[in-house]
From TrEMBL:
Residues 3-251 form the NAD-dependent epimerase/dehydratase domain. Pathway: Carbohydrate metabolism; galactose metabolism. InterPro entries: Epimerase_deHydtase, NAD(P)-bd_dom_sf, UDP_G4E. Homodimer. Coiled coil: none annotated. It comes from Treponema bryantii. NCBIfam families: galE. This is UDP-glucose 4-epimerase. It comes from the Bacteria.
Length: 320
């Protein structure tokens, strides 16, 4: 299929492009390089330098004729979204509506969307399944949930079949070492640990060591970015074969503690990685992890690279 990957020069997008190409799809990347990197582009792909806030850019891109598109272009800093909500309204919501309208106009009616665990807010039970109540606790999560609702309406009214993929914590890098562009402004734990290991920062803080978890630190669900990328290919197959939309969580069903990540990083990098135990951060739940039973049943998706050692090793290969 001819697939347009919007945000394909970014961290997750570049991995999606690689898996789409491996599956035999013909990929074009659309990106304004605001946080994406030229070095993440594959020479084999067409690249359109464009902005999802400029309707003409999207119109011209979709006019080339695509069977499907993946939409990853967004701002993603939950904390920032609480102080600058307008930025998130414009790029995430207006940008997405621009994309959906251009796609419908040019009859491109298969959409794979990067949603997020942030649509759920604090867990009411674990593991989090797709039916868990949705009470986003930051504006970023709200934008993702609203877009899921828009997609449901466009499905009904315009026959736009979509896959909403709710990523938990994306981590790791291409196990084949081909994609090496560093994620810009990462907010997750692993890149922070790597920055210390690589000497870019002198130390790090562990927020809260008195949680009711196996070692007192928070538990999160880290999913290897290549596993996430594989799910996009499977989701495209699913919506194509079944002519039916899909919303799934992508997690590993087993969380990892902050200390387990730091210990694995010390072992694998051989670096000291100085860390300081400090107070909890307000609003950080003790545990957050997902069941991916539905993704397994419907897509046959199972994580292959999301064990702690592979996550750390593939990230260290890029940071070292
Ligand atoms: N990284 C995670 O842990 C995580 C978790 C859940 C969901 N997500 C979602 O996955 C998607 C990709 O995240 P990522 O981590 O790869 O981030 P990223 O910042 O590396 O990628 C986003 C890409 O979109 C492009 N972009 C942004 N605004 C644009 C615009 N106006 N026009 C054209 N291109 C634009 C950027 O240049 C970049 O290449 C985002 O939608 C994010 O919300 C990420």
């Amino acid at each position: 299929m001819k697939v347009l990957v919007i945000g394909g020069a970014g961290y997750i997008g570049s991995h999606v492009v690689k898996e789409m190409m491996k599956a035999g799809h013909e990929v074009t990347v659309f990106d304004n390089l605001s946080s994406g990197l030229r070095c993440n582009l594959f020479p084999k792909n067409d690249f359109i330098y464009g902005n999802i806030l400029i309707e003409r850019d999207l119109d011209q891109a979709f006019a080339r004729g695509f069977d499907a598109f993946v939409h990853l272009a967004a701002f993603k800093a939950a904390g920032e979204s609480m102080v600058e909500p307008e930025k998130y309204s414009i790029n995430n919501i207006t940008g997405t509506l621009n994309i959906m309208n251009a796609a419908v106009k040019h009859n491109c009616k298969k959409m794979i969307f990067s949603s997020s665990a942030a649509v759920f807010g604090s867990p009411e039970y674990l593991p989090i399944d797709e039916d868990h109540p949705k009470n986003p606790e930051n504006y970023y999560g709200f934008t993702k949930l609203e877009i899921e609702r828009f997609m449901n309406w466009y499905d009904q009214l315009r026959g736009m079949r979509f896959a909403a993929l709710r990523y938990f914590n994306a981590a790791g890098y291409d196990p084949e070492g081909e994609i090496r562009g560093l994620e810009q402004n990462p907010a997750n734990l692993l890149p922070r640990v790597m920055e210390v290991a690589a000497g870019m920062k002198s130390g790090m803080k562990v927020f809260g060591t008195d949680y009711d978890t196996r070692d007192g630190t928070c538990i999160r669900d880290y999913v290897h970015v290549t596993d996430l990328a594989r799910a996009h290919v499977m989701a495209l197959d699913y919506i194509t074969k079944n002519d039916k939309s899909l919303t799934v969580n992508l997690g590993t069903e087993k969380g990892t503690t902050v200390k387990e990540i730091i210990d694995a990083a010390r072992k694998i990098t051989g670096k000291e990685i100085p860390s300081e135990d400090v107070e909890r951060r307000p609003g950080d739940p003790a545990c957050l992890y997902a069941t991916s039973k539905r993704a397994k049943e419907l897509l046959g998706w199972e994580p292959k690279y999301s064990d702690v050692d592979t996550l750390v090793k593939t990230t260290w290969e890029v940071y070292r």
